[in-house]
Specification:
About 35% of the residues lie in helices and about 15% in strands. It is an alpha/beta fold and about 325 residues long. The chain has 2 domains: about 120 residues, NAD(P)-binding Rossmann-like Domain (Rossmann fold, 3-Layer(aba) Sandwich), CATH 3.40.50.720; about 180 residues, NAD(P)-binding Rossmann-like Domain (Rossmann fold, 3-Layer(aba) Sandwich).
């Protein structure tokens, strides 16, 4: 009996073909390059596949893709905690399972959130550029003041795994914690976090720091637009390690340029990998290239989890981690 064909649209850390071979699946094509394929190349290599493994930024996977690939497709395995690039409703209607990798992204993304928060608060990016420029003249009492973090108020927007991990790290900075989510989270409100559940606009008016951890959906796209930025506390700092399109970048540039917001720390972008030029030009932005989960250990763990989802889906078994 011919083995089901599997297409890996990227070269994933940890040798995904070997992991699949260990599961008895050897009819595998893997993109030999780390870069993403074009839309036409994706269809070319995924055509006839029973399972496809994708990474963030590979494109949108809906009816057009499903029609082009063929009705033998059984599973799309997302190498990510988010699965907004897949039309899950359409996939489900066609009997295609969709998997994701929630566990490995939690702690490293929370770490990056705090790197961005501290970097934005203390003008780290512009300071680093100054040192590298060779023009630094030494310490000055009035040089490059940032803002304190200890004792300030942090609003966490989206209190899932990553939001809770970010909240745990705030204890060391003695921060007052607020959170916004669709429902109350007892684990957020219990000591030692003692966070308060708030409506979004009320929390924005109170928070010194706002950290976004909600998934990208039709309801959260441009959740942070001009109207919402106007409701934020003047001098607040915005952090985003979730999905770029949750923020309207042109509106964020205006809020930063006007001084209404003091700074922003971003790891994700609205039109990734394109970045609004205004964000690049401003000194009060701290920008990273979508590295939230980028540790050697966690990226390999993600591959293991994505492969497990892929193998199960190809065999028409329940996925260990299936999207809603």
């Amino acid at each position: 009996m011919e083995q089901p064909y599997i297409a890996l649209l990227r070269s994933f850390p940890g040798d995904a073909p070997a992991m699949l071979a260990a599961a008895g699946l050897t009819n595998v094509w893997e993109n030999p390059e780390p870069s993403k394929l074009s839309a036409d190349q994706i269809v070319e290599h995924a055509h006839g596949a029973a399972g496809v493994m994708i990474a963030p930024g590979d494109g949108q996977f809906g009816s057009e893709f499903f029609d082009a690939v063929g009705d033998q497709l059984r599973v799309i395995s997302c190498y990510a905690v988010g699965y907004d690039s897949v039309n899950v409703a359409e996939a489900t209607a066609r009997g295609i399972a969709v998997g994701y990798t929630p566990g490995p992204t939690t702690e490293p993304t929370a770490d990056i959130t705090w790197l961005l928060l501290l970097g934005a608060a203390r003008n780290a990016a512009s300071g680093e550029r100054l040192v590298r420029s060779g023009t630094w003249q030494g310490i000055s009492p009035s040089d490059r003041p940032g803002c304190r973090v200890v004792g300030k108020t942090l609003l966490i927007v989206g209190a899932g795994r990553i939001g809770r991990a970010v909240a745990r790290r705030a204890i060391g900075w003695q921060m007052k914690l607020l959170y916004n989510s669709r429902s109350a989270k007892p684990e957020m409100e219990a000591p030692p976090l003692s966070a308060r559940h708030v409506e979004l606009d009320a929390g924005l008016a109170e928070a010194d720091f706002v950290s976004i951890h909600t998934p990208l959906t039709e309801h959260t796209r441009h959740l942070f637009d001009r109207a919402r930025f106007s409701k934020m506390k003047r001098g607040a700092i915005l952090i985003n390690t979730a999905r770029g399109a949750i923020i309207e970048e042109a509106a964020l540039v205006d809020a930063l340029t006007s001084g209404h917001l003091a700074a922003a720390g971003l790891d994700v972008y609205e039109q990734e990998p394109l970045i609004h030029p205004g964000l690049m030009e401003l000194d009060n932005t701290f920008l990273l290239p979508h590295v939230g989960s980028a540790t050697r250990e966690d990226r390999i763990w993600m591959t293991e989890m994505a492969v497990a989802n892929l193998a199960a889906g190809v065999r028409r078994e329940a996925l260990p981690h299936r999207a809603i």
